[in-house]
Amino acid sequence: MLRGLGTALRQRVMARADLEAAQLIALSSVSMRLGHPYCAFMPPAKADRADIAALVDLLTKNGAPGV
Q1: Domain residue ranges of the chain, discontinuous segments joined by +
Q2: 41-67: pLDDT as tens digits
Q3: At a CB cut-off of 8 Å and minimum separation 6, what does 9 contact?
């Protein structure tokens, strides 16, 4: 469970159980089509971290164009 860790951008289908169990709270009913199964958002200062770079590299190699 994610508790007190901030804001998460998740696909509603993947978050449904957590929303229904009130473990997550939807901040808005507005949704947007992402066009890709995964997206990475980070402050530019974090992009050089080895763990962040590895995740972005993994997503890019697995067909997440535009990362």
Answers
A1: 1-32, 34-67
A2: 778 888 888 988 888 888 777 654 554
A3: 39, 41
